[in-house]
Amino acid sequence: MIIKNIEALQAQMKENGIDLYYFNTSDYHLSEYAPEYFKTIAYYSGFSGSLATLLVTLDDVYIFVDGRYYIQADKQCLPHGIKVIKLGQKDALDPISFIKKNYPDKILGLDGKRTSIKFAKDLIANGINIKSIDIYSDLIVDRAPLSDDPIYELEEKYTGLSRYKKLYLIKSLLKDKIHIVNNLEAIAYLLNLRGNDVKYTPVFLAYLIISDKEVHLFVDKDRLEKDLQDALKKDGVSIHRYENFYNFVKTINDSNITLDENKVNYETLVSLNETNNIYNAISFIDNMKAIKNPIEQSNVQLAHIYDGVALLRFLMWIKDQDKSLLSEYDVAEKIDSLRKEYMADDLSFTSIVAYNENAAINHYAPKPDDCAMLDNNGILLFDTGGQYKFGTTDVTRTIALGEVSDEIKMYFTLVLKSMFNLSEIKFLKGLSGSQLDILARKDLWQVGVDYRHGTGHGVGYNLSVHEAPPNIRHTKTENGSENREILPGMVFSDEPGAYFENRFGIRCENLLLCLNDENNEYGQFLRFKTLTLVPFDLNLIDINYLDEKTIEVLNAYHQRVYNTLLPYLNEQEAEYLEELTRPI
Fold first, then answer.
1. Mean pLDDT of 355-367
2. CA–CA separation, 335 vs 463, rounded Å?
3. Helix pair 406-423, 548-565: axis angle to 10 deg
4. Binning pLDDT at 50, 70 and 90, where does residue 54 land?
5. Peptide bond preceding 469: is omega within 30 degrees of 0, i.e. cis?
6. How many angstroms separate the CA atoms of 28 and 137, rounded?
């Protein structure tokens, strides 16, 4: 089927005079997680991961993936004759360099609504001829529909700020500029609205244009109840049909326009009149959204209490099971059900449950008909999260299912120590994620091991589980978020790991909240508060690889987990938690 899909696309390429066609995993809003409607890379390659680039030529097909997806891309794409280019490996070229070297003077087709302005400009700057055209949509059979679920309001007791106040703050910063926003999370945040258009991320398809005087929302109006439409209009929001956005953009003349070239699509730029002055800048909304206000900070701590109780119940459940009768998918289903049965509205991403060698695949997710059976030995990694009206969670634990080797214990202990190396740092204000990243890698580097993913990503508030800034990593990203300053109120993950292909994988992950610490003659110091409240498996720790300070930190963390969760537990749960959090 994949090969036939590719052949049909190549026929359309020939008909339209296109030598290569480019796909990414985004939607019209350049989202990391897109609605099923936009899963075109999966349709033309079989690859189901959340991030990749696909390049189809008249003779070959190439998929570009980073280190998280090396193994997955090999398994899903190679059987279809698709060539896997592993970014980060020696001699591997990024898509632009690859096109420039191997296909000079060729016509590259792409969908301008799904391509960022920044990427399109980079293509042009490298002498690549681009043609914005959608030649693929009419070819897709049984395409998933877009959501028509109602859009709903998130109350101020959860958001901490009213829609009117948020709009007022942004308007006051814009002055004489018009701000164009494609990003779904920014729009949902600013308007205190949520939807179900993207699986596990409560956003809705919309565009926004805002100035110091006007706010224009482009959305499917039929999904807004009359009371909500009236409330939006009362706060100064004019509502337009979603499909009228580009025509409206064409009417903007002689204006100063600010937009983020990484988050606004190329079709928007093409639609803008040349009489406008266009400024590329990170959105004020993104900065506001990343820094959680006091109500959000308080609420998200409650979300992590609920999350901790749900995962404690999972740990109690699995200890009594004959693991040989369980599959990875069974375990994922159990974690998901326990989280939803307690307080979660939804998951925050597809649950990762990986046994032994599957845990070496960073973003592996079991399927009912494609997963491993467990056994009463080895290790199990589970990386899961929930969406609560109180916030968004993301936690990873690796647990022993029975006997494990000394080697596994060594690496688990080093990964755990690496996580605490970052979470316990006190540092001067002004540092960025790229400067902090080494803290979580240094102990693993000492034994010649690294992990091919960032140490930490920002986490939204009842929004995307991946939110930038902040970004804790030493490698460069397209939007440079790793160089943005870490500020009080930001929430992000701390998740080092160790992965050995075809053998095992280990990861430990907590979420951290950045807070002010002391202010003295050297300046303002910052620190982190750990939000996650889930015990670590003490059976996997080799104390020979821990220093006294880390032992104190671990014991103090476990004591806080116990004290915080205790009021929410029954007697049996409390006894089991006491055992899991015993001092070492």
1. 92
2. 21
3. 80
4. very high
5. yes
6. 13
Confidence check: pLDDT of 392 > 80: yes
Average pLDDT over residues 259-268: 97
Q: What's the whole-number mean pLDDT along residues 234-253? A: 98
DSSP H or E stretch at residue 259: strand 256-259
- In angstroms, the CA 398 to CA 403 distance is 14
Question: pTM to 2 decimals?
Answer: 0.93
Domains observed in the chain: 2-139 (3.40.350.10), 152-289 (3.40.350.10), 291-580 (3.90.230.10)
Long-range contacts at 434-439 (CB < 8 A, ≥ 24 apart): 434/473, 434/474, 434/482, 434/483, 436/472, 436/486, 437/472, 437/473, 437/474, 437/482, 438/474
In this structure, what are the phi and psi dihedrals at residue 392, rounded to the nearest 5 degrees? -120, 135
Residue 140 φ/ψ region, left for φ over 0, alpha for ψ in the -120 to 50 degree band, beta for the rest: beta
Q: Give the bridge partners for 451, in sequence order.
A: none
Residues 6+ apart with CB under 8 A from 544: none
CA distance linking residue 104 with residue 239, whole number of Å:
45
Q: Is the pLDDT of residue 468 over 90?
A: no
Residues 6+ apart with CB under 8 A from 557: 420, 530
| Of 404, 398, 375, 365, nearest in space to 505 by CA | 398
Integer distance in angstroms from the first to the last C-alpha of the chain? 55
- pLDDT at position 391: 98
Using a pLDDT cut of 70, give the percent of the chain over it: 100
Three-state SS annotation for 90-153: CCCCCHHHHHHHHCCCCEEEECHHHCEHHHHHHHHHCCCEEEECCCCHHHCCCCCCCCCCCCEE
Structure tokens at 318: 């699995």
What does the pLDDT look like over 505-534, one tens digit per residue? 999 999 999 999 999 999 999 999 999 999
